[in-house]
Known about the structure:
Helix content: 25-40%
Distance between the termini: 38 Å
CATH class of the largest domain: Alpha Beta
Order of helices and strands: HEHEEEEHHHHHEEHHEEHEEH
Number of helices: 11
CATH architecture of the largest domain: Alpha-Beta Complex
Number of strands: 11
Structural class: alpha/beta
Radius of gyration: 19 Å
Bound molecules: manganese (II) ion
Shape: globular
CATH topology of the largest domain: inorganic pyrophosphatase (n-terminal core)
Amino acid sequence: MYKQAxxxxxxxxxxxxxxxxxPDGDTLGSALALYDALTNAGKKVTLYxxxxxxxxxxxxxxNFAKIKYTLPKEFDLVIxxxxxxxxxxxxPQGNYDIxxxxxxxxxxxxxxxxxxxxHFSSAGMVVYELLKANDILxxxxxxxxxxxxxxxxTGFFLYGDMDALTFAIVSQLVKCGANxxxxxxxxxxxxxLAKIRLYGYMLNHFDLHENGTIATIIFDKASLEATGxxxxxxKNIVNMLRSIVNVTIAIMILEEKEGGYKISxxxxxxNVAQIALAYHGGxxxxxxxxxVALCDPxxxxxxxxxxxxxxxxx
Length: 314
Ligand SMILES: [Mn+2]
């Protein structure tokens, strides 16, 4: 599968590497690592992300500035990184093949070639194994991108299905030139003031349910505007609520600019992917999400809490 995927990438005339909308370090790091490997192999490659504004904490990644938000006119291959559904790519259907590289339990296997390893904690690990299986030399650039991908999707080694393989890979990446201290300080120690103010809003407005085991926060447009926060500042902010000693599940409901709501579910152990699936979303056991069109966020919140209660009772 790794060999077949790499072969298809080498056969392509022009590949577009797509990271998912509202990108994180895993999707961007995986895409940029593949960009490095494929351009080193002499291939014509374009980086694409549908979001006009990319999170700036990843701006240190090599070739970050080359990510475009428009698609080239002609391409024959799409390489999807860290996307569980075709919808996450935000590209039109067309006459091209797809190599689907992912690690989500809920992946829809939409690729011509699917390289989906659902017990890996990041897409970065899948890319690493793909390059290794094809004996591709790991450059410092590539190692830094993959280290960022793996570190970011585990909250810098706090959560996710980490095992000996995760650390064996990370160790190899450090040997190849990735600098853990530098990457950690670039990603984790350059928060916007607006994001810190958003934490302040969250800590003053969250609710507890079910004996303090479920924590919820609703961000409406007004609360975002009041702090000056951008949508990407809300990413993973709900993890702080999950870290409360008695909390087992934390839920964020975010009102989108364009209307509708984005719901992020986090747990210590409970399978929140099954809640997300019930609303046609997806994700992992302890981190999942979904979107809904117009609704009353408080009614939705109560409905989700009820669903969790029922699932726990089973
Ligand atoms: Mn990921």
